[in-house]
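Structure in, sequence out. Go:
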């Protein structure tokens, strides 16, 4: 599984789910609305931890590189919050993150392109990709042959989301780019003889409100579904083409049964059959009378209904008619009327077109809505406002036909009336459409009245004014909020589509910043409280852990920033940074490292350093590291500051795992164990070393790496992690940081040289322990060879030479450690930690060197016994400070016992005074040099 994205922000698995309409409402509350209208409105004091503590003992964050930190918001993470394995797989995230990133990067590389053109290219790219994903999800839904409900629900949810997301990008394309257009200076005088259509177009140029209302209505028309026209078998089509078939048949049979043929002969061609004034009984229900006059106004005039069998026809006809008008497809609406034997309704449906004359109104003649031509002459409705009132009257009339609701709603849409249109509205978009359509008609009529284009007689006929009803300020915000009451379950759907509807509402009402601020606050709350569950926050329908929604909002922000419609400072700017940072953390959780720098470049410097300082902690492969470094250079990111922050984060996050109280008394005893039994390098050790390696591939960061290395050495030595220290030495040796002689190195400052010398000092311990390890292994081989007898004499001779070399190496390195290791650091700021390290290791190193001398005397030459006593002299010397380490750890008594034992061995080995071991002749037995005491020397000492 992928490494966890370290952050208080944890991204749990999110899948689309359907909500129970009777359960918790997913709409945002009116009292605390997502889009409310503006006018409605424990510490650890571990010596292995941080370097500096305040006088009260509280923790002070100090970066490893020095005392001046530019990061004042570092977080101390409790141990139980560390190393959470949270990851997102590609199936959860979706393939569109890569394609969206490609579009963003492609248009980023063309800065000289027209801003609005670039934005439209981005939006179109997003929309095309989303449509492709929708088609793929639709294909998977249609091809799924299993019976797992959860699977099909997920696929359906995914299909619905991509469909609605595509609609959202279409809305963005229509509305957002034009919001920064200056409409001043676009007015022109419309002559009296010109069509009202010219006035309508003039209003579009003058009024941003009218322009946006039309764009919203056009968008709502484009996403409306096709009308449901039955076409299951031939009888359906025949029924619709035959009109009120059952009523006509009933009238025909009644006429055949009751007419007098002779009367028709006498009266001639003008003869007319008279039905009873009371009407005739319905063939389906003898107690119900049906109308006998079949002209369009017959049922209304006679106050009777058609035959019961014709209810299917009426319901189907009016519902489909409403669907065509709702979609703005008036041409097919008229064709539907003709097909259903109601051709007289076609002119009514087409009456919304203002009259135009090709010769006079040349500007609008190329509009596809108008079919004017020089040969045809004027076209359209010259009394459109009177036509509106007629449609309103039809919408308000009393009717009891089965399709009454749809018929009234169809006329209500034509008239621009809200009240009669809403009963037929089935979804959120229908409700928005009914009100936006009414507002457009009201604004247009007001403009026509202002220009004297409506007669007084027409004005006397009442028609509702949506502008007067809904107001003129934040109207779209009020409409959106009115459809978002907590007790309104009409539009309850999956959580994802509900959230996308909130996004669409924010775009429509021009309140995207408010939505972004709510999303940002969720992300902040999530970082403060990992147990926070956004989907249970009933005040908002959005959830910051919804990956797809987070992607959509992030890229809307990018588009607005590109268009210059997003502030660079202030609360909204901070909220945008928080959302983009959340998107980056989500990408990191899914290991989408290659595209992260693209989005990090959109953050401010401090936020970019903060976020990337978290992300880089989880890059483990060398190839990815190289890619990231190239991306840093390509996008102009601050490599040094980011790597410093990454290193600091690694220290802060791993701190709770380094507890010096777990340190064994004899740390070096683990080197007597086999490699399999030793304490292995732990994940936290690897994280620190791996993080430090970033600085190896960056330029001019050797000084930072030296500081970091010293801190890692201290942590490893204070907690007995010697194999971790060895790994650090192997992967980041001092020779790679200080290639030349330290004193002659001109690349490092004096401070850097000081810290480099400390690094080398810490590295020396590992070299000494390796030398001790080699010595111990050769001793073990020698013991094994002694058991083999004389058959391995040649091998024993060679081994003795190797043992001599190993002894000299061990004696040299361990002797240096005992004599001066870390002594120069006693006056540094971390002297307490250095003192603790010396107290931990120097006694063991001294005892180990004592053992080396003792074993050398036993296996090489007895004269080496004297080295034990020479070592004792060094231990006793006050300036060495070695004795103090034995006293501090309570091990002096053990060392004195060892000295007593070696003294007896020296007495047994001494047989006379001989020269130093280097002057011993072959075959001559040496004596111990320490016993070569001259009286003159004694007198001088006395």
């Amino acid at each position: 599984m992928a490494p966890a994205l370290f952050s208080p922000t944890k991204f749990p698995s999110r899948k689309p789910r359907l909500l129970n309409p009777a359960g918790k409402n997913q709409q945002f509350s009116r009292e605390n609305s997502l889009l409310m209208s503006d006018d409605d409105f424990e510490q650890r004091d571990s010596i292995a931890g941080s370097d500096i503590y305040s006088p009260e003992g509280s923790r002070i964050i100090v970066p490893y590189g020095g005392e001046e930190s530019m990061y004042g918001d570092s977080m101390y993470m409790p141990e139980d919050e560390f190393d959470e394995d949270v990851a997102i797989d590609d199936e959860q995230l979706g393939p569109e993150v890569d394609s969206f990133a490609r579009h963003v990067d492609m248009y980023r590389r063309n800065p000289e392109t027209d801003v609005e053109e670039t934005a439209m290219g981005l939006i179109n790219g997003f929309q095309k990709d989303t449509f492709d994903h929708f088609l793929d999800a639709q294909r998977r839904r249609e091809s799924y042959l299993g019976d797992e409900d959860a699977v099909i629900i997920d696929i359906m949810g995914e299909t619905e989301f991509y469909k609605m997301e595509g609609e959202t990008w279409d809305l963005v394309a229509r509305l957002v780019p034009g919001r920064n257009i200056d409409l001043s200076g676009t007015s022109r005088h419309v002559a009296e003889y010109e069509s009202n259509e010219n006035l309508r177009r003039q209003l579009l140029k003058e009024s941003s409100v009218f322009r946006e209302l039309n764009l919203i209505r056009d968008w709502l028309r484009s996403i409306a579904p096709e009308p449901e026209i039955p076409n299951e078998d031939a009888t359906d089509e025949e029924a619709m083409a035959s009109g009120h078939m059952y009523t006509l048949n009933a009238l025909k049979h009644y006429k055949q049964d009751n007419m007098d043929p002779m009367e028709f002969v006498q009266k001639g061609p003008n003869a007319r059959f008279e039905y009873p004034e009371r009407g005739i009984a319905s063939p389906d229900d003898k107690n119900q009378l049906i109308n006998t006059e079949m002209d369009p106004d017959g049922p209304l005039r006679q106050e009777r209904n058609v035959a019961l069998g014709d209810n299917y026809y009426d319901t189907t006809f009016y519902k489909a008619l409403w669907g065509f008008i709702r979609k703005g497809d008036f041409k097919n609406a008229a064709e539907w009327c003709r097909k259903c034997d109601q051709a007289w309704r076609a002119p009514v449906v087409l009456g919304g077109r203002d009259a135009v004359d090709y010769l006079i109104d040349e500007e609008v003649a190329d509009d596809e809505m108008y079919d004017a031509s020089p040969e045809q002459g004027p076209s359209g409705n010259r009394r459109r406002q009177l036509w509106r009132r007629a449609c309103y009257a039809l919408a308000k009339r009393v009717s009891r036909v089965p399709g009454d609701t749809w018929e009234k709603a169809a006329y209500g849409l034509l008239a621009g009336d809200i009240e009669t249109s809403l009963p037929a509205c089935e979804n959120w978009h229908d409700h928005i459409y009914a009100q936006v359509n009414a507002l457009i008609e009201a604004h247009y009529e007001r403009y026509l009245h202002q220009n004297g284009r409506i007669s007084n007689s027409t004005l006397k006929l009442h028609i509702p004014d949506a502008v007067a009803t809904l107001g003129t300020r934040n109207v779209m915000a009020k409409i959106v909020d009115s459809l978002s009451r907590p007790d309104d379950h009409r539009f309850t759907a999956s959580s994802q589509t509900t959230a996308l509807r909130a996004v669409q509402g924010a775009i429509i009402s021009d309140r995207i910043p408010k939505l972004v601020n709510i999303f940002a606050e969720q992300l902040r709350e999530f970082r403060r409280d990992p147990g926070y569950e956004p989907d249970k926050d009933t005040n908002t329908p959005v959830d910051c852990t919804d990956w797809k929604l987070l992607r959509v909002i992030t890229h809307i922000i990018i588009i607005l920033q590109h268009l210059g419609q997003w502030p660079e400072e202030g609360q909204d700017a901070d909220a945008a940074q928080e959302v983009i940072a959340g998107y980056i953390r989500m990408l990191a959780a899914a290991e989408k490292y290659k595209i992260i720098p693209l989005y990090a470049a959109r953050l401010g410097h401090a936020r970019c350093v903060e976020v990337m300082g978290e992300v880089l902690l989880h890059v483990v492969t060398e190839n990815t590291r190289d890619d990231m470094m190239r991306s840093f250079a390509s996008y102009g990111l601050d490599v040094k500051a980011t790597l410093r922050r990454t290193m600091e984060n690694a220290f802060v996050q791993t701190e709770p795992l380094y507890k010096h109280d777990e340190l064994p008394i004899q740390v070096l005893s683990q080197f007597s164990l086999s490699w399999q039994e030793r304490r292995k390098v732990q994940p936290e050790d690897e994280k620190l070393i791996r993080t430090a390696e970033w600085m190896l591939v960056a330029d001019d960061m050797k000084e930072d790496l030296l500081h970091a290395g010293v801190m890692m050495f201290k942590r490893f030595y204070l907690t007995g992690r010697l194999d971790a220290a060895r790994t650090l030495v192997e992967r980041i040796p001092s020779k790679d940081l200080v290639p030349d002689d330290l004193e002659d190195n001109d690349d490092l400052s004096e401070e850097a040289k000081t810290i480099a010398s400390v690094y080398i000092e810490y590295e020396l311990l590992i070299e000494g322990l390796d030398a001790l390890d080699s010595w111990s292994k050769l001793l073990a081989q020698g013991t094994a060879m002694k058991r083999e007898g004389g058959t391995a004499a040649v091998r024993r001779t060679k081994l003795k030479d190797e043992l001599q070399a190993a002894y000299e190496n061990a004696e040299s390195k361990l002797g240096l450690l005992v004599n001066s290791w870390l002594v120069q650091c006693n006056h540094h700021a971390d002297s307490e930690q250095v003192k603790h390290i010396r107290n931990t290791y120097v006694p063991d190193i001294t005892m180990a060197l004592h053992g080396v001398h003792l074993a050398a005397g036993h296996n090489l030459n007895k004269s080496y016994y004297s080295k034990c006593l020479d070592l004792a002299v060094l231990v006793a010397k006050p300036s060495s400070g070695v004795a103090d380490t034995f006293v501090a750890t309570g091990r002096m008594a053990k060392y004195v016992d060892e000295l007593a034992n070696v003294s007896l061995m020296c007495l047994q080995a001494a047989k006379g005074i001989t020269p130093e071991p280097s002057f011993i002749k072959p075959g001559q037995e040496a004596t111990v040099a320490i016993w070569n005491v001259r009286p003159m020397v004694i007198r001088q000492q006395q």
